Amino acid sequence: MKKKFFLFLFLSLFRALLYAGDYTDKGLISGWKFTPLQVDVSLVEKRKLFDESSHTFLALGLFILEQRSAVFSIAGAANALQYNCGLQLNPFFMGTVTEKNYGISFGWENYCKNCYGIQLGLLNYSFAGEEVKKENERIQFCGINIADFLYMGIFNASDKIQIGLFNLGGRNTYFQLGLLNYNPSSFLPLLPLVNFNMGRKFPEEMGEKQEENASIQQHGK
Predict the structure, then answer these.
(1) pLDDT digits 0-9 by tens, 179-188
(2) CA-angle at 125, arms to 124 and 127, nearest 5°
(3) Residue 85 has pLDDT above 90, yes or no
(4) Domain extents for the chain?
(5) CA–CA separation, 42 vs 88, rounded Å?
(6) How many CB atoms are located within 10 Å of the residue 204 CB?
(7) Which residue among 44, 58, 66, 180 is buried most deeply as judged by most CB within 10 Å?
(8) What's the chain look like in SS3?
């Protein structure tokens, strides 16, 4: 059990290091801004055909793929792109890492900072700041999803629309369809099958409204 835990921790840290990359490593052929094909055979040391900083149409990684951008990419262990412009695949091992996803990311685990496309996998999540989350509209399917727009999976936690077995909503969740749904903005927060935003006011919101009304009346006098 301990070995599995430490292995999972190592893989998580390794993925974090991939995400922290600056995509500046040189390849055997250097100086190209766009390449039709990128081949990366590295495991630890960098061994790739073109520079990491180049934009490519097709990117293939034997073990770990790190690239500025790609239209189609697939890797055996981990697939890390700064910009995913099409289809990003890694169904085998550590999943996908993307700073900006404009297409589809498919892996057992998908991490994306700014997601404007679709994530398909067992675990899909983002740890972007609130200022980024307000701009994101992402769709996530399967498994455990953490997003802002539409969820379809086993367990969902988002702000707008949720479809799944268990749905954990927030104050701005509009509609939920599932086995068990929690919506704090509903007059019956916990409901089976269907739940939705009923405009329920919270104590702090009512207090702010009262203070605002008192301020208006005071200035009116």
Answers:
(1) 888 888 888 8
(2) 165
(3) yes
(4) 2-148, 166-221
(5) 18
(6) 8
(7) 66
(8) CHHHHHHHHHHHHHHHHHHCCCCCCCCCECCCCEEEEEEECCCCCCCECECCCCEEEEEEECCEEEEEEEEEEEECCEEEEEEEEEEEEECCCCCEEEEEECCEEEECEEEEEEECCEEECCEEECCCCHHHHCCCCCEEECCEEECCCEEEEEEEECCCEEEEEEEECCCCCCEEEEEEEECCCCCCCEEEEEEECCCCCCHHHHHHHHHHHHHHHHHHC
Residue with tokens 């999943």: 95
CB 116 within 8 A of CB 104: no
**Residue 30 token pair:** 């250097």
- Reference 150, options 113, 122, 120, 192; nearest CA is 120
Size of the chain in residues: 221
Q: Would you state the structure tokens that stand for residue 45, as one six-digit string? A: 């040391």
The pairs formed by 104-113 with CB atoms below 8 angstroms and a separation of 24 or more are 107/79, 109/15, 111/15, 111/19, 112/138
**Single pTM value for the model:** 0.64
Residues 67, 83: contact at Cβ < 8 Å?
A: no
- Cα separation, 68 vs 12, in Å, equals 21
Neighbours of 7 (CB within 10 A): 10
Tens-digit pLDDT profile for residues 16-33: 445 546 788 888 899 899
